[in-house]
Amino acid sequence: MQSSRIGDVFVGTCFCHPVPIGVSGVIIQGSDVAYDDDISSARLTDIGVGSCGHLTTIITGSTVHYDDDLASARVSDTVSGCIVGTIITGSPVVDHE
Q1: What is this structure's pTM?
Q2: Cα torsion 70, 46, 72, 63: sign
Q3: Which of 13, 26, 56, 93 is the most buried (most CB within 10 A)?
Q4: What is the DSSP letter of 91?
Q5: CB neighbours (10 Å) of residue 65?
Q6: Each residue's pLDDT tens digit in the chain (97 positions)?
Q7: Do residues 42 and 8 touch, judged by C-beta distance below 8 A?
Q8: 9, 88 in Cβ contact below 8 A?
Q9: Could you count the other beta carbons within 10 Å of the beta carbon of residue 19?
């Protein structure tokens, strides 16, 4: 699966509104030392912000590849918090199992 980085996109539903709404958002936190395509790698527990302004956390990742002792995030991994969704973009050249 393609690795995810700061700036990669997720889509999902934000449940922190009176009526849940569909949102997209971007990963805004990543490693200070691990990079994919010269962009900070996203990892388990890193944060994203939705188009509605609410935050979410990456809650799944690779079981075999780690950056800074945290599982590497990949396309199709899950975000959860106010926003529950899926990462849909990642590195065009770096794959992690």
Answers
A1: 0.94
A2: positive
A3: 56
A4: -
A5: 19
A6: 899 999 999 999 999 999 999 999 999 999 999 999 999 999 999 999 999 999 999 999 999 999 999 999 999 999 999 999 999 999 988 766 6
A7: yes
A8: yes
A9: 5
